[in-house]
Amino acid sequence: MSRSRFLILLLGVPLLLLTGPAPASAATGSSMDIVDSVTLVAKGAGVQVEVTGTCDAGESGVFGVTVTQAVGSRIAQGSDYVVVTCTGEQQQAAVLVVADVDGTSFHVGDALVSASLIWACCSNSSTQEVVRIRR
């Protein structure tokens, strides 16, 4: 998908958070987790992040991931997302996050990963974790 649509998605997430939770009848229960496996790809040009989440069956869901890592005095950062059709059960997705060209490449070491799952217009689940990037 184009960067402009991704930017709209990223700008829309804070609005979703400000609107508050969806009514209890609208969700069957949600969860969001970052699997401990974050893998360095293409010599640091990106990382692959495994996430799991649950959203209402039949809805379109978006797993969004941002990875931020301090590398010396520079910052490696990137964001991306994948679209899934929600099953109502826990689902796993691999999100390939490419390092921004204005920063530096990712390296083996600790990084902050922020992940969210958004579905049905205004329902969401999110988490942030410090993870280890591995080869």
TrEMBL record:
<keyword id="KW-0732">Signal</keyword>
<protein>
    <recommendedName>
        <fullName>Neocarzinostatin family protein</fullName>
    </recommendedName>
</protein>
<feature type="signal peptide">
    <location>
        <begin position="1"/>
        <end position="26"/>
    </location>
</feature>
